[in-house]
Structure prediction request, 506 residues.
Amino acid sequence: MLSHVRSMGLQGIDGYEVSVECFITNGLPAFDVVGLPDAAVKEARERVRAAIKNCGFKFPVSRITLNLAPAGTKKSGTLYDLPILLGILAASGAVRLPKTQCAFLGELSLQGELRPVSGVLPMALAARELGITELYVPQTNAAEATLADGLTVYGVQSVRELVSHLTGETPLAPAVPWQPEQTELPLPDFRDVKGQENVKRALEIAAAGGHNILLIGPPGSGKSMLAKRLPSILPEMSRAEALEVTKIYSVMGMLKSGEPLVRTRPFRSPHHTVSAVSLAGGGSNPKPGEISLAHRGVLFLDEFPEFHRDTLEVLRQPIEDGSVTISRVQGTVTYPCRFMLVCAMNPCKCGWYGDPSGRCTCSQASVDQYLGRISGPMLDRIDIIVEVPAVHFEELSRRGTAEPSSEIKKRVEAARSIQRERFGADSARCNAQMEPADLRTSCVLDEACTNLMKTAFERLGMTARSYDRVLRVARTIADLDGAAEIGPQHIAEAVQYRTFQFGSRA
Prediction:
């Protein structure tokens, strides 16, 4: 009496096949689960036992051995409840499994109802690649599973319903593929921001090229307000990008009810007390961190110097690579984290250093110490640094509204369209991700631009990395102008975004 049920598992944010093998033999009653199960999987024995009895089936009074293959991979979570139950019923002859290529997953209540599980989308995508044609999931997860095109999905509410389907008494209807509503989700708009035209320009450049940006200004100047409106001018995500982001949120169990697909670019704003593990990801059972939750979107770090220095340093490698690798005893997982880094900070502890009002009470040593909390290598990875001045009464009292996000977004999308032509129509790359080979072909400088870059390089003490980043920003500014070649005016504007002096200005 041996049965075999196909299921799925999660490794990082990718799915893989798990075979649930059930063997029932004579002997003293026992129920053993092998194959590196964690505590949640071991507890499935009691949930399955209660669900079988409460659904009117007889639980075998025999020796039951369940193997979750591959046995060398750690199994975690409650999603194996349903395939374990079906394995027992099939091995005992209570049900007959379909001959089609199908897989099952879901958590059980004691009454035999199916409860939702996390990570259904990556498992559904993996099932499709493995040749599975039918996937049985909890009813709540059905819409999410249908995002894996080419897969027949059945949403199941209870064990009784599933058994009736398998026996042919009451067949289930396949889940209808989920379709998003056409209405756009409202986002904070730049029309609400009065003044700060230079900062809006910098944010437009950052959005057009996917550049990292640092906002420096006194309290109340609108840094956070401006940063929170950045997503409203970013281009819409492609379906491939949306699926990438949704996989991460699915694994974390953070999908909104009735909205299985993440359609807007993420905006993550962790508190400055966040730990390095929470930011980068990890843990004993590794999970994605804030930088992965910000994938294809924005990671906003307010009060930048207040973050622990060791925490900030973990960002250096992910910013360069667009991914983060977590290594633990159980294995190694890699999470994507291609995000725009947006930071905001005061110029000193009191926040008023350099303000014409003279309100600053900090000594020069205190200012240097405050600004010195951010390491040079970290600053080197920021493309644009812009000062955000205090807003004057005249600007606040001015009637009318500022330029809306919709108009800025049109210019950003036009620049991104140029970049798609540059890197390929199917590429999700932008200017901030240009490789050295791309710089040689797309950032060719004439003599005037070369002389200007040489002067800036020497006077500002640029590194090779900051030199490349200036070229990338200049290329974006040229794209916004619709210029085929980078001109001196583009270089000059790009250079000015790196002229802020950290440390003593005496």
In short: The radius of gyration is 28 Å.
